Amino acid sequence: MNQPSSTSKLIVISGPSGVGKGTLCKRLLANHPHWVWSVSATSRSPRPSEVDGVDYRFLSPEAFKAHIDDGGFLEWATYNHNSYGTLRQPVEDALAGGKNVLLEIDVQGALQVKAAMPKAKLVFLAPPNLDVLRQRLETRGTNDAADIDRRVAIAAEELTHTNAFDAVFTNANLDDCYAELTAWLSTEL
Ligand code: 5GP
């Protein structure tokens, strides 16, 4: 296994679906072009706008299970009836090469990363409340009503784990949240 370099950091952005993780990660990457983005694997079907290898590596359930069995995931979780996971090798290679690596994953996965790599920086993004989260999921328009109900129910459970994170930011306003996040990261990295 490649050893992380002494300066490289694994940064984990987690929190409920719809809280704005993806938007904040895109902004982080645009402003830190040397950071490496980890493209997750999933057994979920692609949405119409999603591109294999860019948004996710879309795998069959069998291919996903093969990666579980051969230890290929740094972390993986079942979220809302689908599997999602971070492939170990690209993350370890980037860290060994002195790069910071950014993960955007669910709370179960974030807790696994912390157990495997205690020096990882875990950020929890919280919504102002669950009604706002539901409105955002509805506005995003990528999930049907039953799926949104499940995502909001999962969010309520995820919000009970904030104390396991190194920092918690509430995303009421994207610009303010981004400013708070980057101010914190600049002291941690
Ligand atoms: P979505 O179906 O909306 O793309 O993602 C559902 C949830 O899975 C989101 O909270 C997202 O952050 C999370 N997720 C995406 N990639 C990964 C991953 O590699 N591992 C884990 N544990 N969760 C992930």
Can you characterise this structure?
With 189 residues, the protein is of the alpha/beta class. The protein has a single domain, classed as 3-Layer(aba) Sandwich (Rossmann fold), CATH 3.40.50. It is 42% helix and 20% strand. The chain is built from seven helices and nine strands; from the N terminus they run βαβββαββαβαβααβα. The protein has helices spanning 21-31, 61-69, 88-96, 107-116, 130-140, 145-158, 174-188, and strands at residues 10-14, 36-37, 41-42, 57-58, 73-79, 82-87, 101-104, 121-126, 167-170. The strands form two sheets. The chain has a five-stranded parallel sheet with strand order 2-7-1-8-9. A four-stranded mixed sheet has the order 4-3-6-5. A hairpin with a 2-residue loop joins strand 5 (73-79) and strand 6. The longest helix is centred in the C-terminal third of the chain and has 15 residues, at 174-188. The structure holds guanosine-5'-monophosphate. Guanosine-5'-monophosphate (5GP) binds at residues 17, 21, 40, 44, 75, 77, 79, 84-86, 104-106, 108-109.
SSE order and pairing:
Blueprint: E1 10-14, H1 21-31, E2 36-37, E3 41-42, E4 57-58, H2 61-69, E5 73-79, E6 82-87, H3 88-96, E7 101-104, H4 107-116, E8 121-126, H5 130-140, H6 145-158, E9 167-170, H7 174-188
Parallel strand pairs: 1-7, 1-8, 2-7, 3-4, 8-9
Antiparallel strand pairs: 3-6, 5-6
Helix pairs in contact: 5-6
The structure holds guanosine-5'-monophosphate.
Guanosine-5'-monophosphate is lined by residues 17, 21, 40, 44, 75, 77, 79, 84-86, 104-106, 108-109.
